[in-house]
Amino acid sequence: MVIILFLLIVAAGAILIIFPAPREKTLEYLKGASDRLLLWILWKTSGFGRELTRDGQKEQGLWREQRLRNLAGLAIRSKQRFGEEQK
Hints:
Helix content: over 70%
Order of helices and strands: HHH
Largest sheet: none
Number of helices: 3
Number of strands: 0
Strand content: under 5%
Structural class: mainly alpha
């Protein structure tokens, strides 16, 4: 069983070395996965938000919603501005 697993890993490595397209996609996927893992570890170990009271948590939620609304508005204005220029 271990030999089969080892041979599969070697074969996958050989394919990634020989063909550039799968290599690039695989490397991008691995980079994205490692970034998500690192952010998750930092978020879990940081203790961010543990010192907040219930009122503080509500206020942070309201600020988060406000930021998302602002970003949505910016996206709409950007589409209107650049959409008209492209026509």
